[in-house]
Design a protein that fits this description.
Number of domains: 3
Structural class: alpha+beta
Largest sheet: 6 strands, antiparallel
Bound molecules: adenosine-5'-diphosphate, magnesium ion
Strand content: 15-25%
CATH architecture of the largest domain: 3-Layer(aba) Sandwich
Number of strands: 29
Distance between the termini: 57 Å
Number of helices: 14
Length: about 575
Amino acid sequence: MTAADFRKILHRIDRRGYKAYKDLKGEYDFGEYILFIDHVQGDPFATPSRVRVKILQAIAGFPLDTYHNKSREVALRDFLTRRFAESSKRFCRGRRGTGNSGIISIDRPGQEILERTSSFISRDYAEARFRMGLPAFGRKIDGKAAAIMFFEELPQILKASLFYRNLDDKKLYRHIEISEDADFLRDRLKNLRLVAFVADGAILPRASGVDSRPLTKGRVVPFESPESFRIEVTLPNMGAITGMGIPRGVTLIVGGGYHGKSTLLNALELGVYNHIPEDGREFVVVDPYTVKIRAEDGRRIEKVNISPFIANLPFGKDTQAFSTEDASGSTSQAANIIEALEVGARVLVMDEDTSATNFMIRDHRMQELVSKEKEPITPFIDKIRQLNENLGVSTILAIGGSGDYFDVADQVICLVEYRPYDYTKQACAIADKYKAERMPEGGEYFGRITERVPLAHSFDPSKGRKEVKISTKGLKSIDFGTHRIDLGDVEQLVNVSQTNAIGDAIQYATNYMDGTQTLREIIKNVMKDIMEKGLDVLSYNPAGEYAVFRGLELAAAINRLRTLSVIKKV
Ligand code: ADP
Ligand code: MG
């Protein structure tokens, strides 16, 4: 079928009932590109129709060095999605007629550069996946408006965003090179025996709690590494940069209230992602297996062995396979740690602001008043070294409220008016001078991480007559069948398209749930499939609204499904 055929169909269905739009489904050769109508919306108010375009490389013309490795490819695709969105704003007149009539929209990236299914690139073609609100007045097809959208607006958008010759190539290369450098830097951490790196000059604070663009109002203090932590790294594109390297082990971030502790910590936890140019955090990176841990009271827990932290609960409640429908602050924080370790976390990031106090500390006086036998919780301070020594897991902890932690820290970074200083020596001296009288309570070893085997029957995505109904309700919640998964406290989830993909990945993961594979093995298999075959494995249709996520977040979602049922690994 050709563009002329497409026009004929539009002409034929003009002014007919909306359902006649279904006749458009199929693929059409538009000369410079192929148009695919993958799915037609049921009515003008429904989510707009799924449309795809493939342009031959002979016409799109992207030089090979814009995508010759994975890093560059992901950054280029991210760039194309952003250009498409901008061009659509410019060339599409937008809503006209009933409901979503007239819209042309593509997935919306934020400050992070993520692999997404909204655009693709290969030696053969450039591809964009987006949505179009097929126009109607009332419920009658507006064929004229549709013709304008497909024959005037869309070609303009495509020309401005998917034709290399029309792009600002300086900007494009900068996008690609910065992202490639960030990947390189993150890869280097391991050899440098670091868990994180924060570049000199980085801008860490954000515009507001709900706006993740960089802070520009008022005085903004660029990051400047303490001399003793400063290292130099030579990046493939930007050349040599300097910044603060955070070594493995236990790192405390201390300092007075409002001096920037949480801001630094938040930048670190999002250092698992690459950021766009001018974000300020382009060269702030952490170990890719870094997990933000926090208290999350109210969450459900399914047979997690939290005994390294909590034992001897009242009435003999089991903590080697601890379950609850309504966790407390401390039990939820313990479970969040154990679940993260179960699926391969290597660095834990914690903030006193979002931690349970009784999970973090138990001082001398409290030990005197409430004996160990009467306190189920072994505080984190007594486990933090074992985590490192027994399991090789590092911790970065922002804490301004307890100097007891000086005893267990490898390095202490103090923020004073947003500037970091190396206070390790001072903290050691103080720890020597004022001996903490508290008794260590953590025993000799961290304890065993018990792997769990999730059972497929506990995942039911059906709702009413629909066999599979999985839908994303904003960034932090997924409706899986009739159950809502609350991801409100899963802080390293940054984009709703990740949430989308995770929803479908849960369902996909059940393919591996054979009653013997552990959650860790299942996650590994799912992530391997995605690595090898792309995010499209998660869907029957070519979806345009997936973004890549980590196995750690997939596990977090599964762990928060309220119907989850597991057995112990045999
Ligand atoms: P803390 O955790 O130590 O109490 P925060 O990290 O919450 O402090 O920071 C307090 C405020 O200071 C926040 O509003 C934050 O945006 C701002 N801020 C943080 N870092 C900087 C910086 N480098 N320059 C300017 N303002 C900053
Ligand atoms: Mg804080």
